Amino acid sequence: MEELFEEAASEFKRADHLFYVSLKYSRTGDVLMSLIDRLIACIDKSMDVLFKLKEIKEIPPAPLPRANLIKQNFAEDKLIMKTMDLFFIMRKMIRSEKEASNEFRRTLKVTIQMPDEDEPFILDIDTAQIYFDLVKKYLQHIREMISDD
User: Domains along the chain?
Assistant: First the structure.
């Protein structure tokens, strides 16, 4: 189980580098979207740890059914529920039309038009920081769950 967690942690290290180094120096929409992609990968890999913790044998191969299964089995855990909701939102972001503005500035914004929404979603560095911090807390929570086991 520790190996599975390390895979998720290594994805988070990549996201950490993107956030604190790449985004700081380049501030482009592509880097911001790469950060979101790494956070998605981190959450996706961490799901295997949660499946092991609950000893779930029938694991769907697709990411969305996997996340729904996690939500069913960890319904009492608010942090996991919040992170799975974020997972759904970030996956929609990656697949939607995007347009970057104010690149190379602190006020970088990526306007994302999600197919099922009327209003575009604005992703900026501050929003990415909130997502990054949530995934960080989520991974710390999983580490505590493993050590309690």
Answer: 2-95+124-148 (1.20.120)
